[in-house]
Design brief:
Elements: H1 4-7, H2 16-26, E1 30-31, H3 34-40, E2 54-57, H4 61-74, E3 78-81, E4 98-101, E5 108-112, E6 117-120, H5 126-133, E7 138-139, H6 150-156, H7 163-166, H8 169-172, E8 173-179, E9 185-189, H9 201-205, E10 214-221, E11 223-224, E12 228-236, H10 239-251, E13 258-262, H11 264-274, E14 282-290, H12 292-308, E15 312-317, H13 320-331, H14 333-338, E16 345-352, H15 358-371, E17 375-381, E18 386-393, H16 398-417, H17 435-440, H18 442-455
Parallel strand pairs: 2-4, 3-4
Antiparallel strand pairs: 1-2, 5-6, 6-10, 7-11, 8-9, 8-10, 12-14, 12-15, 13-14, 13-17, 16-18, 17-18
Helix pairs in contact: 2-4, 10-12, 10-15, 15-16
Bound molecules: flavin-adenine dinucleotide (FAD).
Length: 469
C-alpha cells in the first residue's frame, strides 16, 4: 500500500568508501542482494516494502558500535532489525541506508536465578529464552503473540496477553547496553530491583524504536513458573457483556494472568483456521496463575461475574496441551483474520483506555467499522483496557484504505478523549506519528524532538519514525 511519506523519501546511494569499510568489518555477513533487502524492508504493516541498501548481520556489541560509527561518519541511515514482526511501519527504510540484523546475537549472557534476572543479547526470541531458562523453574512472561526478539520487544515497549499480571517491557527491563548514534557503547541501569540514581535512561530507550540507540544487551526480570495454571473460555450474548465482565474482574482486583477478548468475527476466523468449534459469539479467554487453591478461587470469582453477564459454555483447559491449543489459536488470530478476505491486506491498529471506559470505546469503534462496511475483527488484551482492530482492505482501492484509516483516526481521537493512548503496545512507527501531538501536546513533542536531536544529532537512527526531525 502506498503512503505519502514514501514519496517524500530522500534516498542517495551508499558512498563507495563506506561500503568498502563495512565489507571489511562484516565480510560475508554483508549482503546487498535484492532478496535480502526485500526481507528486511518489510514488516507486518500494510505499507509497501521500503528497502535498505545493504544488510549486515552483527555478532557483537563491538561490531554494532563499529557499524554505527561508520554510519555516523558517512551520514548513512541505520535501522536495527529483530524479527520484523512490528505492525506500524517501524523498520521500513524510508531513506535507504543499512539494516543491522541482530538475530544472530541470540545468547543468554548471564542468568541469576537467585535474583530472578537474566541478561540476554537482543536477537534471542522470547520463546528461545523460555526454552533456555526452563530448567531453572523460571520464565519470562511478556508474550506479544509473535515470536519477537527481546531487543525488538524492548525497542517497541511491547506487551501482550500476560501484561495484565506481569506488566509490559517497561516494567520488566532492568538494564541495557546501548550503542549510541556516535558508535559509543553505554550501559543504563543495573540488576538492582530499584534505583534513584539520576535520569532513567533505560526507560528512555525502551520504546524508542531504534531512533535513539541500538540495544545490544538487555537485563530482564524473570519469574517463578506458577505452581498451577488453568485456562477457560466462555461466550457472551453480546460484546458489552463480555467487556463488562472484564471490567468488573479487574476492578475487584482478581489477579488474572491473561484475559483476552475476541469478537464474533475473530472467533469465526480462528474456528476455520484452527479447526475449532467455539460458539461464534463474543468470547473471553482467561488464564489463571498461582497455587492450586489460588487458581481455583480466582476462577470461581470470575465464573460468578461472567454468569451475571449471561456467559455460557464455560470450558476449562487444565491439561497443558489443551491450553496450548487454545492459546495457539488466539495467537494465530491475526493470520486467521487475514483469510476472511482473500487478496486483502490488514490495517492493524491498537489503542488503550482506562478500564472503566473500555466498553464505550470498544463498542463505538465496532459500530464505526460496521457503519463503514469494513471486513474487520476486534480482539484485545482487555484486562489492560487495550484492544486491536484489524481491518481488511483492498490494497489497490484508495477509497477502501481511506475508510479504514478514517476508523483508525476516530478510534484514536476517542481513546485520547477518554484519557487513553493512541497505541497501547504496537508503537508509533510511521502510522501513529501524526497522533502523538494530539496525545501529548506540542510542548511534549518539542521535548521529544529535542531528545532525538541530542541523542542522534545527524538523524541517522531509523530516521522518519516517532517524531519529525
Ligand atoms: C501476529 C502478531 C501479533 C502481535 N501481537 C502483539 C501484541 O500482542 N503485543 C505487542 O506488543 N506487539 C504485538 N505484535 C507486534 C510485534 O510483535 C512487536 O512490536 C515486537 O515487539 C517487535 O519485535 P521484533 O523483534 O519483530 O522487532 P522488529 O519488527 O524487528 O523491530 C521493531 C522496531 O524496533 C527496532 N529494533 C529492533 N531491535 C532493536 C534493537 N536491538 N535496538 C534498537 N531498536 C531495535 C526496529 O528498528 C523497529 O523500529 C504482534 C505482531 C504480529 C505479527
Amino acid at each position: 500500500m502506498n503512503h505519502p511519506v514514501q514519496l517524500a523519501a530522500l534516498k542517495r546511494p551508499l558512498p563507495e568508501a563506506f561500503l568498502t569499510a563495512l565489507q571489511a568489518l562484516f565480510g560475508e555477513r554483508l549482503s546487498t542482494t535484492l532478496a535480502m533487502r526485500e526481507h528486511h524492508g518489510r514488516d507486518e504493516s500494510s505499507y509497501d516494502p521500503m528497502l535498505p541498501d545493504a544488510v549486515v548481520f552483527a555478532h557483537s556489541t563491538e561490531e554494532v558500535a563499529a557499524a554505527v560509527g561508520l554510519c555516523n561518519q558517512y551520514k548513512v541511515p541505520v535501522i536495527a532489525y529483530g524479527t520484523g514482526t512490528s505492525l506500524e511501519g517501524h523498520i521500513l527504510a524510508l531513506s535507504g541506508g543499512i539494516c543491522i540484523d541482530l538475530s544472530q546475537m541470540n545468547r543468554v549472557v548471564a542468568l541469576h536465578p537467585q535474583d530472578l534476572t537474566v541478561t540476554v543479547e537482543p536477537g534471542i526470541t522470547r520463546k528461545q529464552l523460555n526454552i533456555e531458562i526452563r530448567d531453572t523453574g523460571l520464565f519470562f512472561p511478556i508474550d506479544p503473540g509473535a515470536d519477537a526478539s527481546i531487543g525488538g520487544m524492548a525497542a517497541t515497549r511491547a506487551s501482550g496477553t500476560n501484561a495484565v499480571r506481569y506488566g509490559t517491557m517497561r516494567e520488566n527491563v532492568l538494564a541495557l547496553t546501548v550503542v549510541t548514534a556516535e558508535g559509543k557503547i553505554i550501559k543504563t541501569g543495573t540488576r538492582a530491583k530499584k534505583s534513584s540514581a539520576g535520569y532513567d535512561l533505560t526507560r528512555v530507550f525502551v520504546g524508542s524504536e531504534g531512533t535513539l540507540g541500538i540495544i545490544t544487551e538487555i537485563t530482564l526480570k524473570i519469574y517463578p513458573q506458577p505452581e498451577a495454571i488453568s485456562a477457560a473460555v466462555c461466550s457472551f450474548p453480546d460484546i458489552a457483556s463480555a467487556v463488562n465482565t472484564v471490567i468488573q474482574t479487574i476492578q475487584m482486583g482478581v489477579p488474572v494472568a491473561r484475559v483476552e477478548f475476541l469478537d464474533e468475527n475473530g472467533v469465526k476466523a480462528i474456528n476455520k483456521h484452527d479447526k475449532l468449534t467455539l460458539p461464534e459469539k463474543s468470547l473471553l479467554l482467561f488464564e489463571f496463575h498461582g497455587s492450586e487453591h489460588g487458581v481455583k478461587e480466582q476462577a470461581e470469582v470470575v465464573q460468578e461475574i461472567a454468569a451475571e453477564y449471561g456467559a455460557t459454555g464455560f470450558e476449562w483447559a487444565t491439561r497443558p496441551e489443551d491450553r496450548t491449543r487454545l492459546w495457539q489459536a488466539r495467537h494465530n488470530a491475526y493470520f486467521a483474520i487475514l483469510q476472511m478476505r482473500p487478496g486483502s491486506r490488514a490495517i492493524s491498529t491498537d489503542c488503550c483506555v482506562p478500564i472503566s471506559r473500555l466498553a464505550e470505546c470498544l463498542l463505538e469503534t465496532k459500530a464505526d467499522c460496521e457503519r463503514e462496511n469494513i471486513v474487520h475483527s476486534i480482539i484485545g488484551h482487555v484486562g489492560d483496557g487495550n484492544f486491536h482492530v484489524q481491518m481488511l482492505v483492498d490494497p489497490t482501492d484508495p477509497a477502501d484504505i481511506a475508510r479504514a484509516e478514517g476508523v483508525n483516526e476516530r478510534m484514536v481521537a476517542r481513546a485520547i478523549a477518554m484519557d487513553g493512548t493512541c497505541t497501547g503496545e504496537h508503537g508509533v512507527g510511521m502510522h501513529k506519528m501524526d497522533f502523538l501531538i494530539q496525545e501529548h501536546g506540542e510542548g511534549a513533542i518539542d521535548m521529544m524532538r529535542a531528545l532525538k536531536h541530542a541523542f542522534d544529532p545527524e538523524n541517522i537512527l531509523n530516521p522518519g519514525k516517532i517524531v519529525r526531525w
